[in-house]
Amino acid sequence: KAGVTQTPRYLIKTRGQQVTLSCSPISGHRSVSWYQQTPGQGLQFLFEYFSETQRNKGNFPGRFSGRQFSNSRSEMNVSTLELGDSALYLCASSLVRVADTQYFGPGTRLTVL
Amino acid sequence: AQRVTQPEKLLSVFKGAPVELKCNYSYSGSPELFWYVQYSRQRLQLLLRHISRESIKGFTADLNKGETSFHLKKPFAQEEDSAMYYCALKGGAGTALIFGKGTTLSVSS
């Protein structure tokens, strides 16, 4: 079956702009988690959605938000971009629980200039 | 608070040498622990979880609640083991899966 897909794969934005990233989970998976990956901090948890509800949120400012649709697809939005938001944003899906095997997408590489 | 610490950013070993990637966690309850691996130009993927108590690609990891550790071990490293390894922890119900900062394993011949 198809893996987790993320679009777009690459994005270049300027400070102050906003961006929306999309994630399509594996068919049948209902939990979607988002992570920010940087060389210095590794993988940092952003949020997790299950059945269109945010189930958990990491320690990120309110500029980072997300949502999940009824078909389990998820989007995350970052408003008022800062240089420090440059990172690889990873989406992962799992059947029900985050402790179920998480399947990761290829990531969206965001560069903020 | 949940925390995962991987003290080594880089571990370099020779082919055939034993490998131990360290992982320490902070959590007051009974955690679920995992090792994820990312090979070059591949996606992050699950390597093993402590509840399975299985060996994957020759790797094993034992949960030591007394030392709050979940070190990943392999008796004889192979060049194809070179990758980034992440330890992850899931606490009780309603908690997120938290990752350590990762350790790069480099195996050379």
Structure description:
The complex is a heterodimer of chains A (113) and B (109). Chain A has strands at 5-7, 10-13, 19-24, 31-38, 42-50, 53-57, 64-68, 74-78, 87-94, 103-104, 108-112. With 113 residues, chain A is an all-beta fold. In chain A, strands 2, 4, 5, 6, 9, 10 and 11 form a seven-stranded mixed β-sheet that branches. Chain A has a four-stranded antiparallel β-sheet with strand order 1-3-8-7, with no helix packed on it. The model of chain A has no long low-confidence stretch (mean pLDDT 94). With 109 residues, chain B is an all-beta fold. Chain B is 0% helix and 44% strand. In chain B, strands 2, 5, 6, 9, 10 and 11 form a six-stranded mixed β-sheet that branches. A three-stranded antiparallel β-sheet of chain B has the order 3-8-7, with no helix packed on it. Chain B has a two-stranded antiparallel ribbon with strand order 1-4. Chains A and B meet through strand 5 and strand 10 of A and strand 5, strand 6 and strand 10 of B.
Secondary-structure map:
The complex is a heterodimer of chains A (113) and B (109).
Chain A: E1 5-7, E2 10-13, E3 19-24, E4 31-38, E5 42-50, E6 53-57, E7 64-68, E8 74-78, E9 87-94, E10 103-104, E11 108-112
Parallel strand pairs in A: 2-11
Antiparallel strand pairs in A: 1-3, 3-8, 4-5, 4-9, 5-6, 7-8, 9-10, 9-11
Chain B: E1 3-5, E2 10-14, E3 19-21, E4 24-26, E5 32-38, E6 45-49, E7 60-61, E8 72-74, E9 83-90, E10 97-99, E11 103-108
Parallel strand pairs in B: 2-11
Antiparallel strand pairs in B: 1-4, 3-8, 5-6, 5-9, 7-8, 9-10, 9-11
